[in-house]
Amino acid sequence: MSDFTADISQLRREYLAQGVSRSDLSHDPVMQFSKWFDVACRARPDDATSMTLATADKQGRPSARIVLLKHFDREGFCWYTDQESQKGKELAENPQAEILFYWYGLERQIRIKGRVETLSGEQADTYFHARPLGSQLSALASHQSQPVESRELLERRVAELETLHSENEVPRPARWGGYRLIPDVFEFWQGRESRLHDRFRYDREADQWHITRLQP
């Protein structure tokens, strides 16, 4: 056992943003997300689409990582990845997940949870071939989450594939595809002074959304 202890209890942050009231919110959580997302895109366009994806295996053991939102509408929120990765295997075992957006400069976060389904092969093809060539080659070369002997081996695979496909379209790996999270619950959080944050949860009830203010 190590006797090392890092005491970071005095590191603090103050939240100074303007508050959010019930009357500020859209009745439609996707529209409310879109409003906040547009603000985030204007503030930090390079980071607005970053989201934490939390999944769990069939034993309920959780894992989380950052992925990028690629498109959304009232049907759900979509991203693409290697479906044989850890997250892909967990979603196959337990197709429930939560995504979290945190926009530091705006002192805002949005949690969205629900059931996850796979996107069609046609949708995966469309997005895959719209990616930069280097990203296509990396996806073809790498079996995400699997062990590899060295980075040099990965780079050699990419170089070989680049030569092989220099004049031909890079084929989308069968293991690479997309997912859609179909929301059941949204939570919008706005940081406020003295930690008296504003929190609102949307719960789906049949075809309607019910909004509740939560204590911080």
UniProtKB/TrEMBL annotation:
Cofactor(s) this protein cannot do without: FMN
InterPro entries hit by this protein: Pyridox_Oxase, Pyridox_Oxase_CS, Pyridox_Oxase_N, Pyridoxamine_oxidase_dimer_C, Split_barrel_FMN-bd
Family: Belongs to the pyridoxamine 5'-phosphate oxidase family.
Native source organism of the sequence: Neptunomonas concharum
Record-listed FMN binding positions: 65-70, 80-81, 87, 109, 144-145, 189, 199
Record key words, sorted: Flavoprotein, FMN, Oxidoreductase, Pyridoxine biosynthesis
EC code(s) of this entry: 1.4.3.5
Protein function: Catalyzes the oxidation of either pyridoxine 5'-phosphate (PNP) or pyridoxamine 5'-phosphate (PMP) into pyridoxal 5'-phosphate (PLP).
Cofactor info, note text: Binds 1 FMN per subunit.
Top EC class for this record: oxidoreductase
Record field: catalytic activity: pyridoxamine 5'-phosphate + O2 + H2O = pyridoxal 5'-phosphate + H2O2 + NH4(+); pyridoxine 5'-phosphate + O2 = pyridoxal 5'-phosphate + H2O2
Gene Ontology annotations of biological process type: pyridoxine biosynthetic process
Pfam families: PNP_phzG_C, PNPOx_N
Record GO terms (molecular function): FMN binding; pyridoxamine phosphate oxidase activity
The protein, known as: Pyridoxine/pyridoxamine 5'-phosphate oxidase
Location of the Pyridoxamine 5'-phosphate oxidase N-terminal domain: 40-164
All residue ranges annotated as the Pyridoxine 5'-phosphate oxidase dimerisation C-terminal domain in the record: 176-216
Subunit structure: Homodimer.
